[in-house]
UniProtKB/TrEMBL annotation:
Leader peptide range in chain numbering: none
Superkingdom: Eukaryota
GO CC annotations, alphabetized: plasma membrane
Molecular function in Gene Ontology: ATP binding; protein serine/threonine kinase activity
Protein name stated in the entry: Protein kinase domain-containing protein
InterPro entries: Kinase-like_dom_sf (IPR011009)
TM region(s), chain numbering: 6-26
Keywords, comma-separated and alphabetical: ATP-binding, Kinase, Membrane, Nucleotide-binding, Serine/threonine-protein kinase, Transferase, Transmembrane, Transmembrane helix
């Protein structure tokens, strides 16, 4: 008789744990689906939406002049996308402090 109560208790505990886990998973899945249906712009702050974000365009020849034809004297190092060079601001017309 004691063995029977243990078996029933174990099965009942497994059923309850499985049910709770399934309900938590379904709730999480429903919440994540609701977020993806909404507008993606809802997460973007207004101050970012108002500004125009245009990157400056530099021609290859202007970059070549600014880096003194990619000389080794201007090479700062090597990154994941290739060599990194310092530049002269005067060579880039209308440039900010970034290249």
């Amino acid at each position: 008789m004691l063995l029977w109560f243990r078996m029933v208790g174990l099965v009942l505990a497994l059923v309850v744990m499985t049910t709770i886990s399934l309900l938590c998973y379904l709730k999480w899945k429903n919440q994540s689906r609701g977020r993806s249906k909404g507008s993606q712009d809802a997460c973007v702050p207004d101050w970012i939406k108002e500004k125009e974000h245009e990157l400056p365009f530099f021609s290859f020849s202007s970059i070549e002049i600014a880096t003194d034809h990619f000389s080794d004297a201007n090479k700062l190092g090597h990154g994941g996308f290739g060599p990194v060079y310092k530049h002269k601001l005067e060579a880039l017309s209308g440039a900010d402090s970034q290249l």
